Amino acid sequence: MLAVVLVVAGAGVLRWRCPAWFWMTFGVLYAAVRVRVRYASVMDACDLTVAASRFRLTVARWLGWSVPRQRLPRLLWIKPTRTGLRLGVRMCPGQDAFDFSAATDRLRHAFGMYQVTSRETKSGTVEIAMTGYDVLKRVQMPVRRERGARGVLRVAVALCEDGSVHYRDYRQVPHAITLGASGSGKSVTQRRVIKELAAQRVALVGVDCKNGVELAPLARRFSALADDADAAADLLEALVVRMEAIYQVIRREQRVSADVPDAEITADIWGLPEHLRPVPVVLTIDEIAELALYTTAAEKKRRERSVVALVRLAQLGRAAGIFLDIYGQRFGSELGDGITMLRAQLTGRMSHRVNDESSSKMAFGDISPHAVFAATQIRNDRPGMAVVGYSSGEWTRIRAANTSLREAVTACNKHADLTPVLPELARFRPDVDAGGPVAAAAVESAPAPV
Ligand SMILES: Nc1ncnc2c1ncn2[C@@H]1O[C@H](COP(=O)(O)OP(=O)(O)OP(=O)(O)O)[C@@H](O)[C@H]1O
């Protein structure tokens, strides 16, 4: 008896102090059994059953049997996860995925879970993802990566509200914008992305018009860095020159392949032979408004140079292996000509807490009104929380893994030897001698002249 009391008390304390451990020790088993036992009654209570088929009703009437029960959507599987449970459910005829997404709140109450979402995985089947506790309260990224999660240009940035990992996948979504009010967590998200990219074979290029306070400490892993708007305009133009040189390499390789029967013909860097393939570049811009604002005629000219270069990079950069990550507080037409055009190219959209609806419309106005609303609802006491939207109209809440500047600096210093020297951007190579020598840099060969 005493042992039972001790176990129950221990479980209670664990649930209060460390919900992740509670879930993995007691919670998952208890929840799985409860879902299995209560499945039929919960589906009934949540209006997720349908009337028996006419055939069964007719047969029952002919034979004088009692009226057949409502039909249940079939429970295909229950999969425990690190943060919750996933159920595979085959829908009954006449049901659609919307019935289940409309019932998620009822399912949450009925199963006693913290959060429930649902999505159609294949025709007729929905996956119901349930989290057992508030996974975004203290983000703990999984230590073991999911199968297929490794890969160049794919980094784990945050946890989603359903407990899954949110990846920034540059090859799927080449260019992205992250918005948010001051103090909402943009810099922490940026650090997390850079920390994860540092270990990969990519060139990091940065524009930080806050005099470099965010990116300069990470300079050892950066191939080029601009810390004011004038240097940024030059750097962006140099990147356009690099992009054009890479296009020439691709063209030349296409001509070679065209003469070889059955040879694949590539239209981007990934199809180039390894010795010709340039290293991919991730360009990070902190506070885009600093590039777009001007007061004097000279600044206006510089702004135009920057915006034109950025629009060209966003339009054409993907095939040349150039990817953009833009951070800012706002990103709307008030920043002047070219900004709306640039935004249309930035298919990845993330918004941290914003001060007004118009800011969140800048991220999601053309994607989903629900996402616009969700971004305005992010609480002040949840820095790092954000809404991510996709061009398909889907969106989800995430929270970035808290990453200190110290952690990011340590990762960048550790992988400084992976920093390629980009010939076109060599003059923007940060001077890190003040902090010690850069470890032997891997010199990337310049794209061969055509
Ligand atoms: N993912 C997170 N988890 C926990 N705390 C966070 C997270 N992100 C940010 N914070 C907290 O919020 C504070 C402000 O975050 P951050 O500096 O990233 O904001 P910001 O949007 O870049 O602000 P600004 O635009 O003024 O630079 C951080 O010092 C950190 O304490």
UniProtKB/TrEMBL annotation:
It comes from the Bacteria. PANTHER family: DNA TRANSLOCASE FTSK, SPORULATION PROTEIN RELATED. SUPFAM superfamilies: P-loop containing nucleoside triphosphate hydrolases. This is Plasmid transfer protein. ATP binds at residues 180-187. One of its GO terms (molecular function) is DNA binding. Gene3D superfamilies: P-loop containing nucleotide triphosphate hydrolases (3.40.50.300). PROSITE patterns: FTSK (PS50901). Residues 162-361 form the FtsK domain. Keywords: ATP-binding, Nucleotide-binding.
